[in-house]
Every structure is written in C-alpha cells, then in structure tokens.
Amino acid sequence: MKKIILPLLLLLTITVYGQQRLRVSILGDSYSTYQYYIPEGNEPWYFDPVRTDLTDVSDVRQTWWWQVVHDGGFILEKNDSYSGSTICYTGYNDDDYSPRSFITRLPRLGSPDIILIFGNTNDSWCGAKLGEYQYGDWKRADLYTYRPALAKLLNDAQSRYPNVRLFFIQNTELKPSFVESTQVICKHYGVPVIQLKDIKKQAGHPNVEGMKAIAQQVLEHVRKALR
Asked: With 0-12 CB in 10 A as exposed, 13-18 as middle and 19+ as buried, what is 117?
C-alpha cells in the first residue's frame, strides 16, 4: 500500500507546484500608479474617479500592469509606484527625492517571483546628472546621479530578492544618454531591458491605447523569458 501511496503523493505535490501562479511586484513611477492601488502616501497620476484633464484611463483594469498580471495568469504581490519618482536621489528643481526614490522603495515589494521595474523617465525629464559607471562602494553623494543609483538599485534587488526574475522597462522619448546608460548597466547585472516603442500618450503619460501597447510588449518579453 505504501508503495502506491508515496508515488501518488509525490505526483500530487508536483502537480500542485506546477499549477502555482507566479507573483509579480511592480516598482514604478506615475506610469504605474492608480489611486487606492498603491501604498498610502504615494502620489498617483491616475485617479479614481478619472481626471479627464490628465488621461482617458478611467479603470484600473486599463493600466498596463493590471493587464500584464491578468493576461499573464499571474498574481499581483505589490505595486509600489510613486508619481514623479526617480531612480536616483535627485528630483525636479534639484530637490532631494531620496524618500521616494526607487532605491528607498525597493524593500517594500513583498515576496515576488517577478519584479517589473519601470523607471528612469523622471531621471531623464528632471535633468539629473548621469554620473560615472560605478558598480560598488557607493557613497550617498554618488546616488544623486543616475548611473551609480541604477547600479545600486539592481545590485540591491538581486541581493534582497534571490532567484527572483528582474525586468527593466524603459520608456520611449527619453534622452539617448539615459537609454544607453540603462542598457549598459542592466547588461552588467544580467537584467533584461524591455525597450518600449510606439506608445500613445496624453500629457506625457500613456492613455488607454498606450497602456494596452505597454502591456502587450511587456508580456511578450516576460513570456519569452519564462519559457
């Protein structure tokens, strides 16, 4: 009897494990916000009810990340996105954005299997300095520039979340120096870059059509990487 039961239990365990859905966390800026779906205190760009002066996105199900999670058959673990946030500590008007930076929010992503980092838009827009390529021995002053900050973000992500799949989503219409720097640093850490293209926007932010395009492009890359 035991000879029959043990193999059956093993088969059941393998089957249940194989059916487990992967958990996804989002670390982003305004493009990934939606009111009431991000931590309290984080500033949204997409509001409920919709602000039509900003966007035509009127339902959380129209956001790129909701579509990725739903259509990919995943589970949303955490969405820690903050409108206007930067990867480095420098923000608009040269303000100190360290409290809202991607580096600061990284530890709040729960226990995901996949992390989608959608950043660097505000770093490019706000005029943050690039800095030098630096892959260790970071001092606080270094993190006010983009290249050292992104390197530390990816380094910390791989240390804090071992065996978690990381993807970096890169926006369209960014300064070429930021696009290139992101590709170089992500390659150093072995993190795939999902370079977006042809994203429709309103007030600089994806509209309903743009959100759908982002979701399709992200999901295509993630599925391919998970095969």
From this structure: buried
The answer to whether 107 and 27 are in contact (CB under 8 A) is no
Count the Cβ atoms, other than its own, within 10 Å of residue 95: 12
Mean pLDDT along residues 202-206: 97
Please give the C-alpha separations between residue 148 and each of 89, 95, 145, 167, in angstroms, as whole numbers: 11, 18, 6, 18
Tokens coding 9: 């239990």
- Residues with Cβ within 8 Å of residue 199, at least 6 apart in sequence: 171, 172, 206, 210, 213, 214
Q: Distance between CA atoms of 65 and 71, rounded to whole angstroms?
A: 10
pLDDT digits (tens, 9 = 90+) for 124-174: 999 999 999 999 999 999 999 999 999 999 999 999 999 999 999 999 999
pTM as predicted: 0.91
Cα-based distances in Å from 147 to 124, 138, 179, 189, 224: 12, 11, 11, 13, 28
173, 181, 180, 187: which is closest to 146 by C-alpha?
Answer: 181
Cα separation, 101 vs 130, whole angstroms:
16
